[in-house]
Amino acid sequence: MPAVEIESLRFAYHNGREAIAGVTCRVGRGERVAFVGPNGAGKSTLFLLLVGVLRGEGAIRVEGNTLSRSTLRQIRRSVGLVFQHPDDQLFMPTIAEDVGFGPAQTGLSRDELDARVAGALEAVGLGGLGSREPHHLSGGEKRAASLATVLSMEPGILALDEPTTGLDPRSRRRAIDLLERREQTLLVATHDLEMVLEVCSRAVLLDEGRIVADGRARDVLADGALMEAHGLEVPLSIRLGARRSEPPHPPA
Predict the structure, then answer these.
(1) DSSP-assigned states of every residue in 78-126
(2) How far apart are CA 160 and CA 43, in angstroms?
(3) Rounded-to-integer distance, Cα 67 and Cα 49, Å
(4) Smallest Cα–Cα separation from 151: which of 220, 69, 82?
(5) Cα–Cα distances in Å, from 78 out to 34, 83, 129, 190, 243?
(6) Which terminus of the chain, N or C, has less C-beta within 10 A?
(7) Measured in whole angstroms, how far is the alpha carbon of residue 185 from the centre of its chain?
(8) pTM assigned to the model
(9) Which candidate, 82, 107, 80, 102, places its Cα nearest to that of 92?
């Protein structure tokens, strides 16, 4: 059974612009898939549809359950969505309360809840900072705290929208290392194509709400003509690697 199945999915905003235009996609359990594309391609919209924040036409199945009003709560427990903007996810007085909010709704004992919160904060590098107020965090710390709110729910699927945007090099490296260690099914919407090469085995290229390429991440991202046609660039590491592999020019 696939972790996620999307069939003929469509969604248009109130102004009539079709943000998702007939997307069909399947993600296997444990697969690591990057959704890439230019601004406005539909990546964030697709993730919001996946967890029922937006409602479209077509079918979405998560771990065999078809998304509907009756399955919405179950699907949101299966899919941990980290929003693009951390301030959309952090709303409690302290980080620990934010991280513990979801698990607290599942009937955990106090000891179990405290352990779940401590483990999630430790995993993202915020161990011991649970009493901090979210608005006192740096941008990188807010992103880490947002991820901790999802990890504490122990979902089978992680869906991360631009997880490395705005991070300094040390925070970015910590985030990549963390994602590489996770065993869940991983969906990442991102412009950080170097991160994709490290973390994801598959890349789905979206543009104007349609899938225009789907395959091995390195193959998709190395296709210069494809990338240019859809407003992207081949990652620098691939370009440099290609130059190094070129035979030297013969002496004049």
Answers:
(1) HEEEE-SSGGGT--SSSHHHHHHHHHHTTT--HHHHHHHHHHHHHHTT-
(2) 11
(3) 10
(4) 82
(5) 19, 16, 27, 21, 43
(6) C
(7) 10
(8) 0.90
(9) 102
Residues of the chain with pLDDT under 70: 242-252
What is the spatial order of strands in the sheet that 18-27 belongs to?
Answer: 18-27, 4-12, 57-62, 65-66
* 163-170 CB contacts, 8 Å cutoff, 24+ apart: 163/82, 163/188, 163/190, 164/190, 164/192, 164/195, 165/84, 165/190, 165/191, 165/192, 166/139, 166/140, 167/139, 167/140, 167/143, 168/140
Q: Which tens digit of pLDDT belongs to each residue from 82-128?
A: 998 888 889 999 999 999 999 998 888 899 999 999 999 998 888 88
pLDDT at 129: 87
Q: Give residue limits of the domains in the chain.
A: 4-243
Structure tokens at 183: 């065993």
Residue 17, pLDDT score = 86
> Which residue, among 72, 71, 34, has the nearest Cα to 52 in the 3D structure?
72
- Look at residue 246 in the predicted model and tell me its pLDDT: 55
pLDDT of residue 24: 97
Burial 210-248 (b: 16+ CB within 10 A, else e): ebebbeebbebbbbeebbeebebebbeebeeeeeeeeee
Residue 39, Cβ density class (10 Å: 0-12 exposed, 13-18 middle, ≥19 buried): exposed
Q: Which fold has domain 4-243?
A: Rossmann fold (3.40.50)
Structure tokens at 2: 């696939």
DSSP helix/strand/coil, 194: helix
